[in-house]
Design a protein that fits this description.
Number of domains: 1
Structural class: alpha/beta
Bound molecules: fructose -6-phosphate
Radius of gyration: 17 Å
Largest sheet: 7 strands, parallel
Oligomer: single chain
Shape: globular
Number of helices: 7
CATH architecture: 3-Layer(aba) Sandwich
Helix content: 25-40%
CATH class: Alpha Beta
């Protein structure tokens, strides 16, 4: 079931997300993390909280949702680099506990299988999600099977265009494939917290919450999860009835 929390804007959405996240920042917890613009406000609040309150991540583990294929981890737009720049380098999480899928090497299928095994061994307590303007979660584009596991996927043109802003606005520089947790993997998380802000998310938010559960809107499967909170700002909520 989806519980919707409506807030005014991005700052309020980030405050609310941190308030929820805070109760998971305890030894033994496993966090599911996302990249993209949406969680940046949340991560800034986690860093501030670490600095001000010494909230320790030494016994916390994390699993990110996805990573581009073929982008070296040192590339500033790799999700590995993104996570280090925006969160991991500013808190005391053990590098060995902060997992990001690997989009490099000869055997990506093996990387995917191993990632699922690690998550099965350390189930995610709270999964942070953003949503794509086409309703994707992680890099599960419309049409992805609801029971999919971690896999290699081709990015849709709309996602490549959305992400071009991170690659000098040059579509030709955006990787065309990613390793992503599957929808089935995401659905195993005990709790899910999805944040959606801005008018470009309004249609996807409506389809996710009020539409049919259909692979055309990957996020609509969240209606079947027992514990989902969706934080939406006024613009993203504008099409909700
Ligand atoms: C990122 C991810 C993506 C984003 C989505 C929204 O790890 O899995 O699904 O959450 O593309 O991106 P932003 O937040 O940039 O609007």
């Amino acid at each position: 079931m989806i519980n919707v929390i409506k807030v005014k804007d991005y700052e309020e959405a980030s405050d609310k997300a941190f308030e929820i996240m805070k109760s998971y920042l305890k030894p033994g917890k496993v966090l599911g993390l996302a990249t993209g613009s949406t969680p940046l406000g949340l991560y800034a609040r986690m860093v501030k909280d670490y600095k001000e309150n010494n909230t320790s991540y030494k016994e916390i583990k994390s699993f990110n949702l996805d990573e581009y294929v073929g982008l070296p981890i040192e590339h500033p737009e790799s999700y590995y680099a993104f996570m280090h720049r925006n969160l991991f380098d500013h808190i005391d999480i053990d590098d060995n506990n902060a997992h990001v899928p690997c989009g490099l090497g000869d055997d990506l299928e093996k990387n995917c299988r191993e990632y699922d095994e690690m998550i099965d061994n350390d189930p995610i307590d709270i999964q942070i999600l953003g949503i794509g303007s086409d309703g994707h979660i992680a890099f599960n584009e419309p049409g992805t099977a609801f029971d999919s596991k971690t896999h290699v996927t081709d990015l849709h043109q709309s996602t490549i265009s959305d992400n071009a802003r991170f690659f000098d606005n040059d579509i030709s520089k955006v990787p065309t494939q990613a390793v992503t947790q599957g929808i089935g993997t995401i659905m195993k998380a005990k709790n899910i917290l999805l944040i959606a802000t801005g008018s470009n998310k309004a249609k996807a938010v409506k389809d996710m919450i009020e539409g049919p559960i259909d692979e055309a809107c990957p996020a609509s499967i969240l209606q079947n999860h027992q514990d989902v909170i969706v934080i939406v700002d006024e613009a993203a909520a504008s099409l909700l009835s």
